[in-house]
């Protein structure tokens, strides 16, 4: 009865509510409604009249905050959906789908908050959908999820990204076929997601397939083919296939420089990747030279505080550590930390915490133990909050803090830290994992030095 009164008094408000019930019922952005293309909703006065009518009849509520968002009661959502005829359900579900397809933004770091706000609504309108949908919506959703997973090192985000990428493949594949070039980028990103989830075999197989298809269909010098080459090299590097990874990175750098120019972003990415591969092979001087070129190029093209520039600076610092150039490495780690913290990512981003962790290690190598401990505790505290107590990055900070105590001969704190490391590592990986065994050995060594020989023997036997 209430809905019928709204429809009679303010038809635009009734239509707006019909759209809203097919979105997620919480945190509905006002921007999404004003850009819905419903008649009059782009007019501020007409929108306020319509939304005010819905609020007045307690259909929706407006939440307080910096960004105007609305909330729909669960029973209202259910009741309106049941009230609509089958044809109306089809029409308004498709309308909601079209609105999300049009409004969900291409992922950029500075737009990540908008993507985060829109994502639940995109998931709501696509869940169980049997209606035609452009695969680009799935793709944009998946790119955001993958980027969020990278930022947070969040396994759940990667799992969601995998699901959405597969749906993007299915949706696009129905229109263009499974081996169409428009599928390559989706397949490549799916492979990178699988790699982050530890599905390395499937990731490598998929990337090899995409790369080979791209070579045949597009040719060896096309940017898309070169991107596939770099991605395959990255996965191979992570799997320890360093020689093939180096070869692919060298080819990618040569071809990208030739086709796009020496200072194109893709060329500089290839340069950074090749430098990383050379470091993995122990060719530190060559890696340093290549990484310096990549830093200089990215500074000119992207700016000194762009996230990609800061990544290259951090990579250069790592190879300088390998060459025992600790003071310059410290300076670069500080620059990466300050840039990520103040300009690019924020103090709680995983890459900012990685910079703090790496700076702490450089300070330890310089025997500036007090500064190193302060920085490592900052990294550990941040990672515990962001990632959880048993995340691999959190454990890495604990291991390095224990090593710092060992360097200073702080046996009591070292024992406590090693016990904590063993407890967390065993919980994360199980009792037989190599990292757990290493933690047992480290603790055994500490308690043996303290004269606790019975406990040490038991740990050594385990």
Automatic annotation (TrEMBL):
Residues 8-88 form the DUF7779 domain. It holds the Pfam family TPR_10. It comes from the Eukaryota. Coiled coil: none annotated. Signal peptide: none annotated. PANTHER family: AAA+ ATPASE DOMAIN-CONTAINING PROTEIN-RELATED, ATP/GTP-BINDING PROTEIN-RELATED. This is DUF7779 domain-containing protein. It comes from Tuber aestivum.
